[in-house]
Design a protein that fits this description.
This protein is α+β, with helices and mostly antiparallel strands. It has one domain. The protein is 47% helix and 27% strand. A two-stranded antiparallel ribbon has the order 1-2. Strands 3-4 form a two-stranded antiparallel sheet. The longest helix has 20 residues. The protein starts with a helix and ends with a helix.
Length: 100
């Protein structure tokens, strides 16, 4: 793989861009069209904002670090309380079963 990337880093970057755009559109529900961001419900619900940073690894391949803010997500102190309840545990299990 490293040899392929070294031979055509432009093609590798173009493919990475295509892959990330596809994942964002299909799974996260975000699409950039003519410098405008459009969003719809993704696998985590509706998103209010996102931020990402692309880095290259030692062999030249690219990877992405991303933060996603979800609409109507509970604040952190409420999440701490929810994590301690059996009802929340069951909702997480149900979500995982429904989506995986």
């Amino acid at each position: 793989q490293a040899a392929n990337i070294a031979m055509d880093s432009y093609a590798a970057a173009k493919f990475f861009h295509f892959l990330i755009k596809t994942i964002l559109r299909t799974l996260i529900g975000v699409e950039t069209v003519q410098q405008h961001v459009k969003s719809h419900k993704g696998i985590f619900g509706c998103m209010s904002a996102f931020f990402g940073l692309v880095e290259s690894q030692g062999r030249g391949s690219l990877h992405l670090h991303m933060l996603i803010w979800l609409k109507d997500a509970p604040p952190m102190d409420e999440i701490e309380s929810l994590l301690k309840t059996e009802e929340f545990h069951q909702k997480v299990k149900d979500f995982i079963r429904a989506n995986l």
